[in-house]
């Protein structure tokens, strides 16, 4: 029973997506020119290749941001239910924060937070 329902849902999804694509191609406007194909960068025409080497620091900074951003996602539900779980919840979140502080100290010591 579930397999036929799953197949029906998947087929319906595929048909709807393909149908929308075909309808858009049939009735959509078609005007192609060189200017439309260029990337828009605040009105400044692009020069040179777009394949420039990007510093690893950007990626490292983004990963650190995500790490500490997700920390807040875990802290909010804990703060809501901390009274129900008692001292064990306090110990567990303390350990969680300690690991994050050690991670921050490590990144700081390695110079990951320095912008060059």
Question: What's the SSE blueprint?
Answer:
Layout lengths: L1 H26 L6 H4 L18 H30 L1 H24 L6
What class do helices, strands and sheet pairing give? mainly alpha
Q: Mean pLDDT, rounded to whole units?
A: 83
End-to-end distance, in Å?
60 Å
- State the helicity in percent bands: over 70%
| Multimeric state | single chain
Number of helices: 4
Report the order of strands and helices. Answer: HHHH
Question: What would you call the shape?
Answer: flat
> Describe the biggest sheet?
none
Number of strands: 0
Which regions contain 5 or more consecutive residues with pLDDT less than 50? Answer: none
CA radius of gyration: 25 Å
Strand content: under 5%
In brief, what are we looking at here?
It is built from 4 helices and no strands. The protein has helices spanning 2-27, 34-37, 56-85, 87-110.
Description of the molecule:
The protein is mainly α. The protein is built from four helices and no strands. Helix 3 runs antiparallel to helix 4. The protein starts with a helix and ends in a 6-residue tail after the last helix.
Q: Key terms for this structure?
A:
116 residues, 4 helices, 0% strand, flat
């Amino acid at each position: 029973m579930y397999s036929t329902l799953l197949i029906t849902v998947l087929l319906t999804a595929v048909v709807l997506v393909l149908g929308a694509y075909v309808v858009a191609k049939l009735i959509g406007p078609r005007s192609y020119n060189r200017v439309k194909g260029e990337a828009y960068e605040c009105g400044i025409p692009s020069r040179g290749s777009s394949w420039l080497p990007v510093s690893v620091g950007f990626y490292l900074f983004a990963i650190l941001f995500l790490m500490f951003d997700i920390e807040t996602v875990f802290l909010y539900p804990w703060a809501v239910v901390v009274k129900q779980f008692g001292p064990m919840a306090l110990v567990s979140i303390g350990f969680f924060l300690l690991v994050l502080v050690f991670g921050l100290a490590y990144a700081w010591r390695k110079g990951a937070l320095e912008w060059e």
